[in-house]
Prior knowledge:
The structure is a single chain. The protein is of the alpha/beta class. Helices cover 39% and strands 20% of the residues. Strands 1, 2, 3, 4, 5, 6, 7, 10 and 11 form a nine-stranded mixed sheet that branches. Strands 8-9 form a two-stranded antiparallel ribbon. The longest helix has 18 residues, at 237-254. It is globular. The model has no long low-confidence stretch (mean pLDDT 94).
Amino acid sequence: MHVAVVIVGFRNPDDVSRCVAALAHSSHRDFEIVIVENGGREAHAELQRRLPEKLDGGQRLRVLLAERNLGYGGGVNLGLAAAPDADAVWVLNPDTEAEPEAMAESVRRLQAGDCDAVGCAIFLPNGTIQSYGGRWETPFARAVSIGYGQSATEAVDAARIERDQNYLNGASMFLGRRFLQEVGPMQEDYFLYCEEVEWFLRPTARRMRLGFAAGARVLHHAGTTTGSYNGIHAKPKTPIYLSERNRILLTRDCAPGMLPFAALAALALIVFRFGRHRAWVQMGYGLQGWLAGLAGRRGTPQWLAARA
């Protein structure tokens, strides 16, 4: 099985180089790497200087320059278009390090023939699980990470995860050709956050089965570009605003009848999350995103477009 690994970067060459170095040790050898640089010509040139055209194992590596900052979904779509003949596509965040068996285990699970996309164990540097998979709770416009906070050494009930999940964590999504052909490209006007959830909640995607490869493990140095894992009083505007905006947009797109209830639930969660810590600035960011979602605003936020 030939795998195309798609990585979307934004002016983070250290992350991308580390991600590629880990992939070079993969036990599954039939793959190529497509990197999409969203951060402009200088960032693209820096990656080209740092990375080889081929890995030591002979695997091809390409660095594509996006015409502008396309966001996560747009960057992924550009990478997908560059590898139309791959048997499977592995979308990886640039701040990840895949263990050597991760690709091989994902290939084996996909080749079992009873699923169309495969998730894995994504763990944080502190040794705890970030996600085995995700569960979107529509009434509350809330994403729940299965296994979050558990020790990464605990035994995994793969069958239960496959029953419970309805989307894969965007840091690592192993996608079969049928999924890509039937479901189509990612949503681009979310810019960042929730686009992977929308991808798996589409009516066409709901007919697909999501698998889980228990032996596939990926380390995630979460939030290195966005600051989303900073302490609550240090979280910047971008991840808070976009997360809250896109939760509302996702509800509008996938379950519009639930929007009134879900919007109130999302508002209550914003107030509870930030208010209990007296993080008033961050609460303001969240409320701005919530209002933008209700107003149907999409695409690149103005302050990010000005910096591009």
